[in-house]
Amino acid sequence: MATSTFPHFCCLLLLLLPFLPTVFAYIEEDCNIRLDSLPLVARRETNPITSRLEEFAFGFHPLESEIENQFLLAVWFYKTKEPTIVWYANGNKPAPENSELRLSSNNELVLYDHEDNELWKAPTPRNSKSSCVAIRDNGNLVILDERYNPIWESFKEPKDTILPGQILYMDTALRSRQSNTNYSDGRFQLYLQLDGNLVLYSLTKSLSSEALQRAYFATGTLNWESQLNFTEDGNMYIKDANESNRVHNLITNEYPGSKEDFYYLARIDHDGGFRLYRHFKKDTTNDEYVSCSSSSSSWTVVKSIPDDICSVLSGDIIGGGFCGPNSICSSFDGSRGTAFCSCPPGFSSLDQSYNWSGCVPNFALPSCDNNGWEVDKELVEFVKLENMDWPSSDYDFLQGPDVSEESCIQHCLDDCLCVAAVYDQGKTCMKKQYPLSNGRKSPNITSIALIKVPKNIGIEKKGQSLIVVLAVLLGSSAFLNILFFLASSVAIIYLYHKRLNLPRNIDRTFGTNVRSYTYKELEEATRGFKQILGKGAFGTVYKGVLASDSKRFVAVKKLDKTVEEGEKEFKTEIICCKSSVTFALGEEEALIDWAYECYKNKGLEKLIENDEEAKNDMKRLERLVIVAIWCIHEDPSQRPSMIKVTQMLEGVLEVSVPPRPSLYTSLSSKN
């Protein structure tokens, strides 16, 4: 009889395995923090509490923000090179320095700020007394009562991330954060509904978790008793608890790898993508170049849902599309669906803090009045953007064999209501009006966007062309892009030394520490602008040598026109190349990839060798490298303007996380 019941017992045990943390009581040795030993104080010198095998850490994690000394009460991967946060208590209310985690008078675990205001409280059952906190090696943070029974778990109240072994039950949601560094509630939600359907939602701009709009992804698992399972080996699927044979796999063609080799996490990112990530548990090499550029030192995407955010978030879901009105949403090969927002030429971001807020024109809207700028057709020009479309906002269209790009421009020029036109190879011209909605740029789009703007907007002619260093405007030359990034990455050390000894002939109205050069100085440096390196969109670039250092080269762009903003806009950083760096195209692809990986994996010290002076200002070093990466963006329309480069370098504008440089993909396709 005992023999016949044993298999049934084993089956029952297997069914209970996912629930073991709550079925079996913990023991005293599982406690990492005795609550009677609190408070835990938010300070940079406060050491985190680690799990038994030191896989995860719990404590106060400093935030990267404009306000110094703010902290998240969080759980993060402890052994990875970058401490990746997987759960946080107070994303909407960052804790200032000297905030405390302690027991309240009601025996609840509460986070208080330095003025004793409540920032977060762990919800616990009535008549339960919290005794200790356990941080498990699977990343689960557990509060135990006096009998060491779990009364609260982070796995049951996730934020934006789930981990292997964690189960998402119905009526549970993940909420995206605002950005990579801002952990307040974002605009997207992954929700396992009570009807069993797993749905991705975009939220209203009020950021209210109650006001949901139309879904942009759903599994269709309706009327299931659904559970989202995330296995130890990185697989993810929805299972019907009532029907064991009903399974919906979220990871189909991708192989996540082995749990012996990888860490895993799944997260709804701030751009709305739900992604499975993996990270090598150990680096397999000591070589500096490989350790920086190998995926072993960073999180890589295994699967992204949906594949392309830009295409699924149309204008009728959130006003203007994913990036807001008058904007451009782009995703690139290798980005695994990650979206990037930008403004068309002649437009600026509505809110510099959020690049998805939309864009506004830097000129008056066409009014069709007699005194409008669009009336005098000699003062109108069109900005051309290839592989671009605004599929909404059209009010009229032309089609037929006689429709060409030139005729499309002419029709828009003759129509005072037309603010832009989209022309495709199918001989169709669609006229647009403001706001331009759901802007998308992709290699798969064959249409051309033609934006009507005032001629020479923001540009006035002066008696002499102004000379600017290549660090500001890169034009369209791939060769110059490479040169600039090499100069930025390899010679950062030179910048730090040079900036301390710059001459003080700087216009006080500029108020920065950058070096200004006269036309004559740069004419002498380039020996009369003789050796041409290449030609960009706004002028010709010449090789030069500064008189102050004959061993260091500079690339100087001679502009054909100047910008109305005046002298302030043009005084910028000089990027000088080390004498060991040539202008050849040899190992630049590897160098750029290496430099980007060093930035991404917080290994910028490898770029500056043993320069202690540079290491003392790593924040500025990181800012310089980020700006350099943006400046070599393969899409010229997404590169920052000259004035924005200056503002980003000086810290006036926030510098967003740049995409991986994809320059060489386009280069190889052209060669």
TrEMBL record:
Q: Which domain of life is it from?
A: Eukaryota
> Any idea where the Bulb-type lectin domain is?
38-156
Membrane spanning stretches: 466-496
Which one of the record's GO molecular function terms can you name?
ATP binding
Question: PROSITE patterns under this entry?
Answer: BULB_LECTIN (PS50927), PROTEIN_KINASE_ATP (PS00107)
Name listed for the protein in its UniProt record: Bulb-type lectin domain-containing protein
Signal sequence bounds: 1-25
SUPFAM superfamilies named among the record's database cross-references: alpha-D-mannose-specific plant lectins (SSF51110), Protein kinase-like (PK-like) (SSF56112)
UniProt keyword list: ATP-binding, Disulfide bond, Glycoprotein, Membrane, Nucleotide-binding, Signal, Transmembrane, Transmembrane helix
This protein's species is Castanea mollissima
